[in-house]
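Lab notebook, page 48
Experiment: co-folding of the full assembly
Goal: obtain a model of how the components sit together before planning crosslinking
Operator: M.T.
Materials (sequences as entered):
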Amino acid sequence: MLMFVLRRLGASLLLVLGTTIVAFLLTSVLPGDALTARLGERAAANAELVAKLRAELGLDRPIWEQFFIYLGGLVRGDLGLSLQSNRPVTEDLAQFGPASAELALMATVIALVVGGGLGIVAALRNNTWIDNVLRAFSLGGVSVPLFWFALVATSIFSTTLRWFPSSGRLDAGVAAPPHVTGFFTIDALLAGDLPLFGQAFEHLILPALVLSAPMVGLLMRFTRASVLDVVGQEYVRAAEAKGLAPRTVVFGHVLRGALVPVITIVGTAFASLLAGTVLVEQIFAWPGIGSYAYRSATTLDLSAIVGVTIFVALVYIVVNFVTDVLYGAIDPRIRRA
Amino acid sequence: MTATAPNPVDELDRRRRFRMRRVRLPRAWRRPLAVIGLVVVAFWVLVVIFGPLIAPYDPIAQDSARYLPPSAEHLFGTDGVGRDVFSRVVSGARISLPVAVGLVALSLAIGSTVGAIAGYAGGVVDGVLMRIVDLFFSFPAIVLAMAVSAALGPSLLNAVAAIVVVSWPAYARVTRSLVLGLRDANYIQASRLLGASAGRALLRDIAPNVIGPILVVATLELGNAILLLSGLSFLGLGAVPPTPEWGAMVADGARAFYNYWVALFPGLAIFSVVLAFNFIGDALRDALDPRTERAVGNVEV
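Observation: model returned without errors.
Model output:
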């Protein structure tokens, strides 16, 4: 088991180094000129000013030297300065990260409950009209354009029905709870402020529901296939044949075996969530990594773009590492593969 | 206690009856979603072909009043600068669909070439190529695409380039595993013994046997490509105004909250096309995937 964990860890570290190189190269090689973006057209025409800024940012050195300087910084937890906020990128990420994490985790919980539950139902009603309707539903989840779905959801549930607020993490002018985790819902609970918790939750639920759509679809499909796989196995037939009630067979035997592989898909699905946050946060004015990434991309804030890309890739790699190890711990066959 | 114990085989049959209904359904209706998908795609293909004949107005002419609600004259209403939304949705199909098909074809060509080389060569070549593929997989597609199209400047072509960068690895993975499975098959070895080059073996002997599953991936990726493309355009990083691109049109509508029709119809267009491709791709995947077939088969024994 230890060897397995070490091997996975080694592979993950290599991947992190690789992503850093690619993200760095991509943004350095591409022709977009961050200096013009920062200085504005007039100042960019001033050669002296440009040279001074280039030296200040280290842009006058050869690319490989820039990369090693960057890598050295990365190891120390320094991702450079963000051009738009004039703060260290790590500070920006620390500020916006928890907002996105709260949103993504809430969406994951929704997806696990809804997607997992409906996937089980679809498998148990395999090849009936219920299965077909659920399949259409799950494909709908992965097919819906999130930015449009978010708009439709806000215009129905916020503008028309007024059930949920349409933007932000709290009502305008309300102070955030004291910072502990950065998750407003949890921080409000920790501060013992129930009304504030309610408000944070109200703000969270609609964007999380929208964001969970593709993951619901993925998890439904995967759970269904996994349950069907197990239903066909000998031990389930044995349980049925010895006369156990169908309910006992489903809950005691089928689900036990079927839900373990579902863990593996959660990692992959989580990555699709992070991509979705860019679009969803945009519409709900959610101050997270997605909005930050969008602002960085449109202002050509290169260190922020590289920072976000590495950060998100890192989250993806870590999540996958954890699910791999979990799966290996549960299923010994995976360790040997 | 019941008087007579049921025969255990009958009992199993009784419990399983709900899973056996499939057998009695006519073949096509076993996959109603695939039928729906095909009809919708056929519909959109017709719209692409006959677009200019269907659209009643010039999609970029600003010659009506602003924000007219849907009516007989303007089926989907007009947008913020007085353009006919229906005509724009129709001509949007002529952008989104051909571009998505071209984009997928390009990614498929790059990805399956890399995958085929990795799978056939094996060893170090395989290791290096697949680590590169892993690398691209761990990037969040839309963030990378945002970075690329932001750096290159917003244009439809740059958005396409950005999406190709993030979507080719999927084909590489599938192709590699398929080629790997066939590489040591007897008929390939026979062809090699007869003096076939690696290129010939790959193109003439292996390709016909792997193209099916790759096309399934492509069908599913068509939907993804359309979603990513419209997403980038929505963010202002893809098609530039006044191009009638669906994602950009939704963005126009997002600014006009109370005039729901501006965003609703182009969004529905995206949704219906992507859903249709996924309906078809899903049915194809099931038909080709031995795992799901086996599961279904076992249940019916």
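Interpretation: Residues 46-57+75-300 of chain B form a domain with the MetI-like fold fold (CATH 1.10.3720.10).
Next step: discuss with group before ordering constructs.
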